[in-house]
Design a protein that fits this description.
Elements: E1 13-14, E2 21-22, H1 25-33, H2 39-56, H3 58-73, H4 76-124, H5 128-133, H6 136-178, H7 180-187, H8 190-226, H9 228-236, H10 240-292, H11 298-319, H12 321-339, E3 361-371, H13 381-384, H14 393-402, E4 417-428, E5 433-437, H15 444-450, E6 459-464, E7 467-468, H16 474-480, E8 481-484, H17 495-500, H18 508-517, H19 521-525, H20 544-558, E9 562-566, H21 574-588, E10 592-596, H22 600-605, E11 608-613, E12 616-621, H23 623-629, H24 632-639
């Protein structure tokens, strides 16, 4: 499957001059669809907006009545009621505002929750290849910064637009009723609001997207250098100053774009404020002359001035609404970019669950290609949405035709395809132990990753008990295949929790039995907190061999029908390795096992040995048969295995 989808292009139209995404109807509808589960809260929110807007309009009328009637006529009773009314208006608005805030928060926080769940779920379905091309820090930025930005569009921007629109229409109606000439005079300056908003809006939209991209870059830098592996590498090579300089550079970019955004935004509001002040001055100047001529009362001009303020406030906000929506839509675009990335390894609707697993595995002319990174290029999520993955042969031919068409949205990065596997065929019978050997880069790990569908073949087929693994449920494969990878990973949790990750319902006795099999129980029992010992970031509080044995115990606890061991004993000393080998021989009984072997003991115990070189299967057979062939295996045996 190609990794590019034209789907998300439907939501974006690029301005050739500005190179900025234009808000489209499809994008707005999709963004609004995020709030659909909160229709009742939205209706309640709309009701509170109408209530607050209506009550707010009462205040100027109270001032008018106070100046024109209560004070000139000496009406103390009227004065008292008007004073109470002036207190009551903000009090009632405040109480309604509490309910409005609660409803708004329910919608906003709910949107954040839903978007994060959708993103996290989608990212979990991404193939292993996706994660080799992206940086964790950038993914975190999408899950945090962009999601919050998208939430603001619904819970803040939309609410602000609706409330200001209601207030504007109601205020305009009352002003027309009070004095239509002054109202029209106040509206003459409307074009002066719109012109700066359109120009500055484009600038702010571009700055917002660049700010998000730079924040993602800074997050990626922090994630790469502050995790245990990155921190260790930095210290070993003495690169603290250079990494600090890199972080300072990224931070400076975020700072500078923030300053520019703030300055541009201030210029925008300053222009609007000046225009508003000019409009108010003109209205009061003309209105003052009309009062002096006796056209209407002082109370009317005071009330009109208050309404004018209430008119310009929403008018300024609505003028800026396009800017705010555009900025918010950038967040939605970035969220949708991730959600629209196709799932490379997906489950068919007709996929079947594995029932009784015998463990026969057949590779039938399997080839696998991936597209290498371009020279000096970094592939981020913005580019990955346009990235073309290696897929079927037909797709690769299509890619080859497009690679020179730079104006095509489906164009790849232009880097050459790299074949990790080429025309690999072999079979593993139920219960067989098969050893995989070969020089570094021969394609051994890629082969093992094919069995649990971490990768899918570009060409050819893999069958499990006669069934194409593409026709099987992914969870079913995961339940029946146990794998210990070359790089052992443990969560920042207790040893017990890491072990039960394979089998959450395992009893204490089962956990202990699995650890005894992996020769790690005595070590764990000797710790102060035993199985409740926290292993630290990525398990680095344990040695490499201890982490490896915990990982093996975790797979033993899972009790799978098929075992895949990617150099599972590479970090063990000779004594532990021998004990583990003896234990694994018991574990492998009755199970199909594929082991990347680097020790002679594993190779000699194998029923079949597969020899790989340059992504091809060059030899297969027993130890004696391969030695007799005088091929690559004999060379490896003489140079590597014989001395191990």
């Amino acid at each position: 499957m190609g990794f590019h989808s034209a789907g998300w292009y439907a939501y974006l139209r690029y301005d050739e001059d500005q190179d900025q995404p234009t808000i489209t109807r499809e994008l707005l509808l999709r963004a609004w669809g995020i709030a659909k589960p909160y229709r009742l809260q939205s209706l309640g929110l709309l009701f509170t907006i109408l209530m607050i807007s209506g009550i707010t309009l009462i205040s100027p009328l109270l001032y008018r009545d106070l100046i024109d009637n209560a004070i000139p006529n000496g009406d103390f009773t009227r004065l008292n009621w008007l004073a109470l009314g002036m207190i009551g208006v903000p009090l009632i608005n405040g109480v309604i505002g509490i309910f409005q805030r609660r409803l708004n928060s329910q919608i906003g926080e709910g949107v954040i929750y839903d978007l994060r769940r959708a993103l996290y779920s989608h990212l979990q379905r991404m193939s292993l290849r996706f994660f080799t091309q992206t940086r964790t820090g950038e993914l975190m930025s999408r899950l945090n910064n962009d999601v919050v930005g998208a939430q603001r569009a619904i819970s803040n921007t939309m609410v602000s637009i609706i409330s200001n629109l209601v207030s504007l229409v109601a205020t305009l109606g009352i002003m027309l009723a009070l004095e239509w000439r002054l109202t029209l005079l106040g509206l003459i300056i409307l074009p002066f609001f719109i012109l700066p908003a359109r120009r500055i809006g484009k600038t702010l939209r571009g700055l917002t997207r660049r700010s998000m991209e730079m924040n993602a870059e800074m997050n990626a830098t922090m994630n790469e250098t502050l995790n245990i592996s990155g921190a260790l590498l930095v210290k070993l090579f003495g690169r603290e100053k250079s990494e600090f300089a890199r972080f300072s550079r990224d931070g400076a970019s975020v700072r500078d774009i923030g300053i520019r955004s703030a300055v541009v935004g201030h210029w925008f509001f300053m222009i609007l404020s000046v225009v508003s002040a000019v409009g108010s001055a003109v209205v009061f100047w003309v209105g003052g002359h009309l009062v002096l001529q006796g056209a209407f009362t002082i109370g009317t001009i005071v009330a009109f001035g208050t309404y004018l303020t209430q008119l310009y406030g929403p008018l300024m906000a609505l003028t800026n609404a396009q800017v705010e929506i555009a900025q918010s839509m950038v967040s939605f675009e970035r969220v949708f970019e991730v959600l629209d990335i196709p799932v490379e390894i997906d489950e068919k609707k007709s996929a079947q669950a594995l029932q009784k697993v015998d463990g026969e595995i057949v590779f039938d002319k399997v080839s696998f290609a991936y597209e290498g990174l371009g020279k000096g290029n970094k592939i981020g999520l913005d580019e990955i949405a346009r990235f073309t993955w290696g897929g079927s042969e037909a797709h690769l031919r299509k890619r080859g035709k497009q690679k020179d068409e730079s104006d095509s949205p489906a164009t790849s990065t232009g880097s050459a395809l790299q074949w990790a596997l080429r025309d690999v065929s072999f079979s593993i019978k139920p219960g067989q132990l098969v050893a995989l050997v070969g020089p570094s880069g021969a394609g051994k790990s890629t082969t093992t990753y094919m069995i649990p569908r971490l990768y899918d073949p570009t060409e050819g087929m893999i069958r499990l008990d006669g069934e194409n693994i593409r026709d099987l449920k992914l969870n079913s494969l995961a339940e029946n295949i146990g794998m210990v990878t070359q790089e052992t990973y443990l969560f920042y949790d207790t040893i017990g929790a890491n072990l039960r990750y394979a089998c959450p319902d395992a009893t204490a006795e089962e956990v202990v039995a699995a650890c005894k099999t992996a020769n790690i129980h005595d070590f764990i029992a000797g710790l102060e907190d035993g199985y409740d010992t926290v292993v630290g970031e990525r398990g680095y509080r344990l040695s490499g061999g201890e982490r490896q044995r915990v990982a093996i115990a975790r797979v033993v606890l899972k009790d799978p029908r098929i075992l895949v061991l990617d150099e599972a004993t590479s970090h063990l000393d000779s004594l532990s390795e021998e004990l583990i080998q003896n234990a694994l021989q018991e574990v492998m009984k009755g199970r199909s096992s594929l082991v990347i072997a680097h020790r002679l003991s594993t190779i000699l115990a194998a029923d079949k040995i597969l020899v790989m070189e340059g992504g091809r299967l060059v030899e297969q057979g027993t130890h004696d048969e391969l030695l007799a062939n005088s091929g690559l295996y004999k060379e490896l045996y003489e140079t590597q295995f014989k001395t191990v």
